[in-house]
TrEMBL record:
Alphabetical list of Pfam families matching this protein: DUF3310 (PF11753)
Organism, as annotated: Bifidobacterium choerinum
Matches recorded under InterPro entries: SaV-like
Top-level division of the source organism's lineage: Bacteria
Name of the protein described by the UniProt record: DUF3310 domain-containing protein
């Protein structure tokens, strides 16, 4: 296996952003859901990856909707990464998904949260993406 497959596989890079730059600040379930959406067009079987994303979305709880504590500088970097991925997303449904996971800081908490921390909203967005990729 070459170093590129270990260090920077092509299916984890979009528009100069590597998937880990976004997901490392997320809880496990939220991060995995995003990982599968991120790579679904890049790894060979979009429909299967989207089904995996849906599996994680169905298991999300209110606890999973949060992000890990981060500095304001890190928050800006993650926001920028999400927007770069959104900007190269080819469909409206996928662009909406990336806007929903965009991290925002709330004045009453040291932990940022995703813009639309709502399991039902994720399921609807993912269903839209799946509908566009259905074989």
């Amino acid at each position: 296996m070459n170093d590129d497959m270990l260090d920077s596989p092509a299916h984890y890079e979009r528009n100069g952003v590597e998937c880990w730059q976004i997901t490392r600040h997320m809880t496990y379930m939220l991060g995995n859901m995003c990982k599968y959406v991120f790579r679904h067009r890049l790894k060979g079987n979009p429909y299967v990856d989207l089904q995996k994303a849906l599996r994680y979305a169905r298991q999300l709880s209110a606890v999973d909707m949060g992000l890990l504590p981060m500095t304001d500088n890190t928050l800006v970097l993650v926001q920028h990464a999400c927007l770069r991925v959104r900007d190269v997303s080819p469909t409206d449904a996928e662009r909406r998904f990336w806007e929903m996971v965009l991290p925002v800081r709330t004045p009453d908490s040291h932990r940022p949260r995703v813009s639309d921390a709502n399991q039902e909203a994720y399921l609807v967005a993912l269903d839209g993406i799946v509908g566009e990729e259905r074989p």
